[in-house]
Design a protein that fits this description.
By secondary structure, chain A is α/β, with parallel strands linked by helices. Helix content of chain A is 36%, strand content 23%.
């Protein structure tokens, strides 16, 4: 039976994990596959750096071309990260008829449609289990395990850095800056954490999950994104007082006509499974119209969890190769997915519950003025905390409230009007809430 | 392209769900598959019973043979349940070269090796996502998503009936009998609940999960089983006081040499994700040597969740059929799995933490006598609750304790000896604890 040969581009953290699994588990993997799975070549510009795995020198090359040009290599694993030259390498690999495994969510979110179209035209596959939630088998769940479902809604804690920071802020009352420093010290955040903390990485991953959930083109532009870098620990404390936890959620919901597509800090009831997802852990909570609610939880990053996902993809592609079944499952789960689009619900049309915090001058009548404006916009208050004489910044006291369901456009207009009151000190703070009980209470 | 034809044996609850999905989602499923997926025939002895789905009369037949004999039918879905005649039907279907989907865990646990061997010999596939945890995609996760991992340990809440009963007992202080009656009233328990409450159904499912986790033969006999029907609500309350919840867990753990295989009521720390799994929900928590800890959570039973899993299997087999790739993934994830066995660790060799409850006569020195015997067997106490004058049954007071790690044989010997003391009223109650913190404390 034919041996399957694998070439790895990028010998960094994840690359080292993949190489370790392919070398150390060669026998087990070959037993699963029924034929020999061989690590043929590893390319990295820097071959001198120490790595947590030892490889025979002859496997190493500083030139990606040595892998792309090798007609013997069946599967190319792209672990370089970033957009360039990863995109060029993938297109070249596809053009040479090689199957590709990647963990590169940014590349997929930005150029996935082009790459998948090229792969389909060439009859090769692109697999990307490792691009979302590291070791959690969410991609295979959506492409196969839940293939009989229409995904009605999906909530993801998709970025371990953000979740670690939020957990530190929530559990230890740290400021954002302190928590970020902790995350950097623990190796969970990079020196420049922008991609993570501004929600961009989460949006990349939501782009991929939405395409799989809906069998439609990747559409990064559709996603409204807000990060966690301006969070005040005060709001995490008030959220707790109301019985919530604050999480950076990726959210998509299908009303049958339009789909929501958003990434932002979100209040989640403390009894919900997503509130139990702490530290650097990741989770996806989704509802299928047949399967009902499903949670998948695990390590979303790190050398070995990500390598676990990469190698499961290698095995899957190798299984298709040995059976001549490339393209058995279309990359986005459906035929013609790349020709399909979903109508996105603009954020202004969103209907949800809100958390508001106002910095009020401590004078009589403030609450009545604020609630008067909310009433004008048909926003009704579900709960309120006003802490009497506790002095906040600039001699103000916080008024914090939870609303029943309201339209985002109305909420924004009301906040704008409230910010103009002389008795409050703008800007008003607001976060969105995902709470099925509050939703139900409104009906 | 060839149309794929499906025949369904058994038009009960799950059968109705499968039929509904195949009829209502035909277009979506065909779009995923790239060819038409057709429900060709449904067999059930009782065609008159009302059902939640309407089907064209000509699809229905009272004779399973009409499906087994039809050369046009590619995939047979066995939803009859029980061992006979399901086994015969499956063997016949296999013999005629048909692929089979089943939700029948009892049949797989008892006759799976024979059925899988027959299927392998004939070059057809048996798929069984629906046999474990209904809508949760655990089988595809083990066969594919986590295929690069050695599964180090796996804990499952695999039976919704038991979990519902335990949740009622724990949250509302109900007796077992009351909680069972509630479960029956809610449709979660059958009139004869034996298979569920005695842990047998859970053992069937653990048999399947172990085979997939270890790539080895199905071995129902290996599993030590204890159910929940003799549980006293008192122990659920004491478990709570110690910071635990009591769950019926399926447990397997691989020490590299031998594997544990057991089903019994187990104390789980209240902060652990498994403790958040309430009501009729199911979950599997496992640790892969690469992926780390993973939790999958969802509805483990019911018409549509189970149908979701069945139809995902139909789609998977259909994808193999259209690509001529039958046997792409061996049924137990590995080649030669049916020739492999794992050495089982006898329960006597188990090393774990224990919960003990003794009914002590309210006299001085009882605790010292009890702890003296425990000390003799090298069992050290981590925590103890002795409620002074609170009278229990027969004029006794409960002494409840949590132990550090001990060998099961020692624990049983110690309990036997304690039961002979004149100051306690036998039998002593004991449950096993799964608590990584307590384990770590011992090292």
């Amino acid at each position: 039976m034919k041996t399957i040969k694998v070439g790895v581009l990028g010998f960094g953290t994840v690359g080292s994990g993949v190489v370790r699994l392919l070398l150390e588990k060669r026998e087990m993997l070959s037993r699963r596959l029924g034929t020999d799975l061989v690590l043929a070549r590893i390319a990295d510009q820097d071959l001198e750096r120490p790595r947590p795995v030892t490889v025979p020198r002859e496997l190493l090359t500083p030139r990606a071309q040595d892998i792309l040009d090798d007609p013997e290599i069946d599967i190319v694993v792209e672990l370089i990260g970033g957009l360039d030259p990863a995109r060029d390498y993938m297109l070249t690999a596809i053009d040479r008829g090689k199957h590709v495994v990647t963990a590169n969510k940014a590349l997929l979110a930005h150029h996935g449609n082009e790459l998948l179209a090229a792969a389909t035209a060439k009859g090769v596959e692109i697999a990307f289990e490792a691009a979302v939630c590291g070791g959690i088998p969410i991609i295979v769940a959506l492409r196969q395990g839940l293939a009989a479902n229409r995904i009605q809604e999906l909530f993801g804690i998709l970025n371990g850095t953000c979740n670690f920071i939020l957990t530190q802020m929530s559990q230890h009352g740290m400021s954002y800056a302190q928590a970020l420093a902790e995350a950097q010290a623990a190796g969970y955040a990079e020196a420049d954490p922008t991609l993570d903390v501004e929600g961009i990485d989460t949006a990349h991953k939501l782009t991929i999950l939405m395409s799989l959930a809906y069998g439609a083109r990747l559409d990064l532009e559709a996603i409204a994104v807000e990060g966690i870098s301006r969070l005040d620990p005060l709001d995490l404390q008030f959220a707790r007082e109301f019985g919530y936890r604050l999480k950076l959620l990726a959210i998509t919901r299908d009303d049958g006509h339009r789909v929501e597509a958003r990434v932002h800090p979100t209040l989640v009831p403390k009894g919900h499974m997503l509130s139990q997802v702490n530290g650097a852990m990741n989770a996806v909570y989704l509802t299928g119209d047949a399967a009902g609610p499903i949670l998948l939880y695990g390590q979303g990053a790190g050398m070995m969890p990500t390598a676990s996902a990469v190698v499961s993809d290698i095995l899957d592609l190798a299984r298709n190769l040995t059976h001549g079944a490339a393209g058995r499952v279309p990359p986005l789960g459906c035929r013609l997915a790349l020709e399909s689009t979903r109508l996105i619900k603009p954020m202004n049309d969103l209907v949800t519950n809100y958390y508001f915090r106002f910095a009020a001058l401590d004078r009589p009548g403030v609450l009545s003025q604020v609630s008067g404006i909310l009433g004008k916009y048909a926003i009704s208050i579900a709960a309120v905390i006003q802490k009497g004489r506790v002095q906040g910044e600039a001699g103000t006291v916080p008024i914090v409230m939870i609303t029943h369901e309201a339209r985002e456009a109305d909420a924004l207009q009301a906040l704008k009007e409230i910010d103009r009151l002389t008795v409050v000190s703008p800007p008003a703070i607001f976060y969105r809430i995902e709470d099925p009980h509050l939703h139900a209470a409104q009906i």
